[in-house]
Give the backbone structure.
Amino acid sequence: MSVFSDAISNYLSPIKDLLDDPTVSEIMINGAEEIFVERKGLVYKVPNKFQNEAALLAAFRSVAQSVGRVIDQDSPRLDARLPNGSRIHVVLPPMARRGTTVAIRKFAKEELTLKDLISSGALSAAGARFLDIAVFLGKNIIVSGGTGSGKTTLLNILGGRVPKAQRLIIIEDSAELQIHSEHVVPFEARKANDDLRVKEVSIRELVLSAMRLRPDRVIVGEVRGEEALDLIQVMNTGHDGSMGTVHANNPLDTCTRLESLCLIGDTRIPPDAIKKMVGSAVKIIVQCARYHDGGRRVSYISEVLGVDNHGNYIVKHIFRWVQTGKDAKTGKYIGEMVPCNYVPSFFSDIVVNKLPFPRSTFTTPDWVEKLEQADAA
Ligand SMILES: Nc1ncnc2c1ncn2[C@@H]1O[C@H](COP(=O)(O)OP(=O)(O)OP(=O)(O)O)[C@@H](O)[C@H]1O
Ligand SMILES: [Mg+2]
């Protein structure tokens, strides 16, 4: 709460306990009378209420104002980051039919590490080691997943594994990534604001600038518009090891989604050529998922091998998460990430660089094969 001035803290007093509670990761306000929170990946209703719609609106107007933004009938949607790193999104009525609707993604005080992901079962030790190697070898990586599936968190971790001597240019819509490395240059896009007489500076423009700023690698926090084409071009022009996140439900969809984003812009490149560019730019896709038990896990680590003669992307899974059961008491899924019997095309890079990752690590264990046979029967 200390990030807010006394006046704003006052406005936000109905949700003070939620803002202060470290076990709450997200607060969802659906009008003055209905508030839900997320704890450990699961969503619960809480008794907190704002006095009325006017009090709720006043609270988030003042929050918006505190970060130099306006929310009113002319701009009834707000996407903003608070000084403590939390992210908020607000939609006003009448678009929001229940009343002012807000989601606050609280800034995680403890940053997750690869080790944390291994110990919570989101990744296997071999999967984590493999991702580390892919980053080290400068493979272009797309982290893909649905909303809130853990993409930004994982990209943050992977960005932190880039060899220290490399110059990393990071471009985001609203700054969320906190990559700890020696040579990091972060950029944040700017929205147009007539009152302040500022024009928009888009992600796309910043990617173009990045190219002239001698990057070793470029990281685009979230690829959701025509900047996809620029990132693909960055990836195809020797900035190996560039990364980004994309909203998609599986690794194959990630390629298709990138392709359609590339085509949004006014491009004179024929669609077939775009497809080939996507197929050769993206090397590794890390698929994040939020499962029904509340767990966030990496569901696939896959390699993209290009496009076949029929124009289909060739995507091979290297690791995947397999569910084997469910804990009767907690309802949590039991399972683990397993290799898929596929040796990535760049295995020779691993050998030549003397990275300790034997070929046998890609072999599917017998129990999984038995499970699959049982499924097929
Ligand atoms: N492996 C994980 N285990 C537990 N919590 C996680 C994990 N990954 C992410 N989280 C938490 O889940 C929430 C959403 O994560 P994150 O912001 O990375 O998702 P996202 O996919 O980038 O979401 P969006 O689509 O909104 O950008 C955060 O509170 C984060 O701390
Ligand atoms: Mg994100």
In short: Residues 6-105 form a domain with the Beta-Lactamase fold (CATH 3.30.450.90). Residues 25, 105, 108, 112, 117, 120, 122, 145, 147-153, 296 surround adenosine-5'-triphosphate (ligand 1) (CB under 6 Å). The longest helix spans residues 53-66.
